[in-house]
Amino acid sequence: MLTGALYPSSGQISVMGFSPFKDRTAYVNHIGAVFGQKSQLIWDIPPIDSFNMNKAIYGIKDKDFKASLDELTALFEIEEIIKKPTRVLSLGERMKCEFVMAMLHRPRIVFLDEPTIGLDVIAKQRIRTFIKEMNRKGVTFILTTHDLQDVEQLAQKVIIINHGHKVFDNSLADLKSNLGSEKIIHLVLAKPISGFDVEGVKVLEKRSDLEYTLEVDLKTSSINTIIRQLAEMCEFSDIGIKELPMEKIITQIYQARE
User: Fold this and answer.
1) What is the pLDDT of residues 60-81, one digit of tens each?
2) What is the side-by-side order of every strand in the sheet holding 182-189?
3) Nearest to 32 by CA among 105, 91, 97, 86
4) CB-CB contact of 188 with 236 (8 Å)
5) Which of 66, 192, 199, 231 is a good FRET partner for 37, with 20 to 30 A between their CA atoms?
6) Structurally, how many domains does the chain consist of?
7) What is the pTM of this model?
C-alpha cells in the first residue's frame, strides 16, 4: 500500500504529500524499491542495459544518469560486473545491481523487502554500508526484514507487527530497553564450581566445566551486586556482559501480545 501497488480497503496514506494509490504516476518518480526475492534486472542482458532501460522509463538526463551510475557503481565496486549478463552473476553481485537499479533516478524514499536474504556475510555488510551512506545523504529507507542484524545495524525506528496488529512502534534504543531488566553474562572460570547460587542468575548454557552463559534479572539486584556475588563464589578469568539478544526481546514482545 505504501508503494501504491495495493489499494487499501479503508483509511488514508500520505507519503511526501502524495496518496500512493491515487497519485501513482507522479508518486513513483520519487520512490525506489528493492525486493530480495524478485528481480528488476533482465536475466539475459547485462545490468548496464537494464539501467539504460530505467533511464528511459524515468526520463533521466544523460548527465544525471552518468553521475548517478558512476557514484553507485563505485560505492559497490561493480564497474566491470555491470557489463556481464545478469544470469552469470552471483546473488550478492545481482543484489548490488538491484540497488543501483532502484537508486538511479535519485528517489527520496526506498522500500526494501528482505534485501539481504541469502547473502553471505561480506555481501550483507556491503549492502548495509551502502544503505547507511545513502541515508546519510538524505534518502529514507523503509525496511521489511526478518534478519535482526539488519534491524540492529540500520534501524532508527522499529515497528513490530504480529498477526496484523502493531505491537511496537518506537526507537531501536527503546526496543532494547523494553525488557532492559535482563542481561547476558558470558563467564570463563579459572577452576570448576558445583553451581551458581545467586538470586536472579540462571544458567542458559554450559559449554564446559569452565565456560558458562548466564542470564541475570536486574529487578532483584544491580549488576554490581551480582558481579560481586559471583566473584565471592568463584574465580573467573574472563567476563562479558551483553544486552538481551534482539531475538529474545522480540519473542517476548510477541508472547506478551498473545
Assistant:
1) 999 999 999 999 999 899 999 9
2) 201-206, 211-217, 182-189, 236-243
3) 105
4) yes
5) 66
6) 2
7) 0.76
